[in-house]
Design goal:
This protein is mainly alpha-helical. It is built from 9 helices and 2 strands; from the N terminus they run H-H-H-E-H-H-H-H-E-H-H. Helix 7 runs antiparallel to helix 8 and helix 8 crosses helix 9. The model has no long low-confidence stretch (mean pLDDT about 90).
Length: about 200
């Protein structure tokens, strides 16, 4: 029963997150806030309520019964940590601006009366880690979670749900990218693998 509760909790969070990053939600929020206020404040507000929802999720998961699943020691532990470091390296090789990501730069520009600047997602970037896989942030986080040498039942189930959500989410995200960049993104899809740095025969 607790495993089902873990799955339902993560699924609820995934649905909440998916809705709040959807194009339909963006249109509604922009209409309600006004374009200028949306560009200045929305990303910061999104970060705030996403963090609150995530902390509530962690508190709920912590209240559930759990039991150890496995704990690697010795060479196995070192091997798992080495793979995790590869995931960390992939994250660092992925160019992203933390202050822009959480919304501080947009808020500061709005406060100074400066116009909104185009972000990284307003142009197609296909270099560095994005030249290895199309979703390096998802892959890096998935590797770090999946190769943790200590897992309980609930953390293992959480990891499976998170990785599955990342992978399924790539299909919806790429549909939006195709609408945005058109043939340029389709050519990028042909050259770079989706989630794993492997080439499958067509």
């Amino acid at each position: 029963m607790d495993v089902l509760r873990v799955i339902v909790a993560w699924t609820a969070f995934a649905v909440f997150h998916s809705l709040t990053v959807s194009e339909g939600y963006e249109r509604l929020a922009r209409r309600w806030m006004g374009s200028r206020a949306y560009d200045g404040y929305h990303r910061l507000l999104f970060t705030a309520y996403s963090v609150c929802a995530f902390l509530l999720l962690l508190l709920y998961l912590h209240s559930l019964q759990d039991r150890p699943l496995y704990r690697l020691e010795g060479a196995g532990r070192l091997l798992f940590h080495a793979v995790q470091l590869c995931g960390v390296a992939l994250l660092f090789w992925t160019p992203w601006d933390l202050l822009e990501f959480v919304g501080f730069r947009q808020w500061k520009r709005h406060g100074r009366g400066e116009p909104a600047e185009p972000g990284r997602n307003d142009r197609l970037f296909a270099h560095k880690a994005y030249g290895v896989v199309r979703h390096p942030l998802y892959l890096g986080i998935s590797v770090i979670l999946a190769f943790h040498p200590v897992q309980s039942r609930n953390t293992f189930v959480s990891t499976v749900v998170i990785v599955l959500y990342f992978y399924v989410g790539t299909f919806f995200e790429e549909r939006r990218m195709v609408r945005k960049f058109g043939e340029e993104y389709r050519n990028y899809q042909k050259k770079v693998p989706r989630f794993l740095p492997l080439r499958w025969p067509r």
